[in-house]
DNA sequence: ATATGTGAAGGGTTTCACAGCC
DNA sequence: GGCTGTGAAACCCTTCACATAT
């Protein structure tokens, strides 16, 4: 209830399932590549292979957009590029601001994939006064004090947060108050936002942790499942847990104080 | 069929649903924060709020791991931290290599969230000879020629690809041949890998495109749905599409050649 | 009294398989 | 003949609601 909703269907769109929306950018990328090679048409099979999905899924996805293919032939590449671009809202350009110009923020500012998809970096914002005025990716960094002004005068509705976790919620609140209604969050924190604001998150270390999970399973399989240790330990083990957890915690906290970057509000 | 499987259940784990695995890192983060504040126990309600999920989901998730809570009381924070860490395989440390030390690669090398979760950056690898020997995040960059040697001698099983899209598949092939079985891909390409290798991808621009989709819907709602334009256009419109697509493409390709970073193989 | 653990219901997503159209 | 578009089946995930345990 008090929890910030992290991911809403945003008015349930117009019947296009969320899972489909999430794949449209993939199709678009594959189609753009084909378009650059001047390929006129593709079959669902070919396009699916290029996008890394299966063809039945692709056809179902496209069926939500309309009937854009030709039976017995396939899809017109240029036509589909246009339709998907329009559906995604990429026929207009979206000014975005990036807040937090550290290593990651700078990398994002330099990332070609943004500009190449209709996203224009309208401003770079950082809380460090020493950063103000410095050019990053050809754009002068502005101080956080300017945030509201920048959002307002540029009509920015999409914000990217690349600050340390501790600052993220505060920055988020200011962005939202200034009129931003979509946020891409790179800080490892759960953001709380009012209804009507969309948040998507990218957490670099979470992806690695998911890989580690599967990697561990692979290793365990070689000599058969070591299910003895994996089986639900009986509650008596909890007594020993203080030590075990301390050992783990010790590992995690590591040699130096790297926790600050991970500490939520 | 010829398509590289991008996301496999990897031997179907031991019955822990993929969706649950993907949330374990979230719980772990929230629990770590509580642990640092020396909170001894949490209820599913509190923890769920901190992790940004609903409490029934959290309880179901935990039920796959075992019965780690106490009815009427809640969960022991330290105990849960340990159990989830173990389940994710974070009680051991994972050497990882990062290939492609551009802006993003450097940001990843500097990212505290890796080291703080048991991931150790064993090496940074780049194809540019001029980069060789340069220290990034305190680690000397090594040339791609060393790749196989580095993987082998460090027992690396997780690789991070942050190269331009055009180089990604090639790098991926070499990583896999050298023994890497889990790959985190930041390059905007579909990677093809043999069975038994897991790939997870993070595409920065895809997330923005999904936000743009919802943002567009919000804007459209204000004056009622402009479903006229959104309705499946009849095929005659395809004739005009060449121009429309060109206009879009023109926008996308932008002022300068920013496409190289996005061009798949 | 309070909060977990879990069958059962519900909703969404993927896959199948084939009718329909070129 | 070949390929799209789509009902129907299968599957997975989420949510509900309450039995169960402390």
Automatic annotation (TrEMBL), chains A, B:
Q: Which family does this protein fall into?
A: Belongs to the transcriptional regulatory Rex family.
Subunit comment for this entry?
Answer: Homodimer.
Q: By its UniProt entry, which HAMAP family does this protein fall under? A: Rex
Question: Could you tell me which PANTHER family the record lists for this protein?
Answer: REDOX-SENSING TRANSCRIPTIONAL REPRESSOR REX, REDOX-SENSING TRANSCRIPTIONAL REPRESSOR REX 1
Its keywords, alphabetically, are: Cytoplasm, DNA-binding, NAD, Repressor, Transcription, Transcription regulation
- Database matches in InterPro entries: CoA-bd, NAD(P)-bd_dom_sf, Rex_actinobacterial-type, Rex_DNA-bd_C_dom, Tscrpt_rep_Rex, WH-like_DNA-bd_sf, WH_DNA-bd_sf
Question: Region Disordered: start and end of each range?
Answer: 217-265
- What is the designated name of this protein? Redox-sensing transcriptional repressor Rex
Q: Give the residues the record marks as binding NAD(+).
A: 100-105
Q: Its function?
A: Modulates transcription in response to changes in cellular NADH/NAD(+) redox state.
Annotated CoA-binding domain residues: 89-190
Q: Which residues bind DNA?
A: 26-65
Gene that specifies this protein: rex
């Amino acid at each position: 209830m008090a929890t910030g909703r992290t991911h809403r269907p945003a008015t349930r769109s117009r019947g296009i399932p969320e899972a489909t929306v999430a794949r449209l950018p993939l199709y678009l990328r594959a189609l753009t590549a084909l378009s650059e090679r001047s390929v006129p048409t593709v079959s669902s099979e070919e396009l699916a292979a290029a996008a890394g999905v299966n063809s039945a899924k692709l056809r179902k996805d496209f069926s939500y957009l309309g009937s854009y293919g030709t039976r017995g032939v396939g899809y017109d590449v240029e036509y589909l590029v246009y339709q998907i671009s329009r559906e995604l809202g990429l026929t207009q350009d979206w000014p975005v601001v990036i807040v937090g110009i550290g290593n990651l923020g700078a990398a994002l500012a330099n990332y070609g994939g943004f500009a190449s998809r209709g996203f224009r970096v309208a401003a770079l914002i950082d809380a460090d006064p020493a950063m103000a005025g410095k050019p990053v990716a050809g754009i002068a960094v502005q101080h956080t004090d300017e945030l509201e002004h920048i959002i307002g005068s540029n009509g920015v509705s999409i914000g990217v947060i690349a600050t340390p976790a501790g600052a993220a919620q505060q920055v988020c609140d200011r962005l939202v108050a200034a009129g931003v209604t979509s946020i891409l969050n790179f800080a490892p924190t759960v953001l709380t936002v009012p209804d009507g604001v969309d948040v998507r998150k990218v957490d670099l270390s979470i992806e690695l942790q998911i890989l580690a999970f599967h990697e561990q399973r692979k290793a365990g399989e070689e000599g058969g499942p070591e299910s003895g240790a994996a089986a639900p330990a009986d509650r008596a083990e909890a007594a020993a847990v203080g030590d075990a957890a301390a050992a783990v915690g010790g590992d995690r906290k590591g040699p130096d104080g790297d926790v600050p970057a991970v500490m939520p509000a």
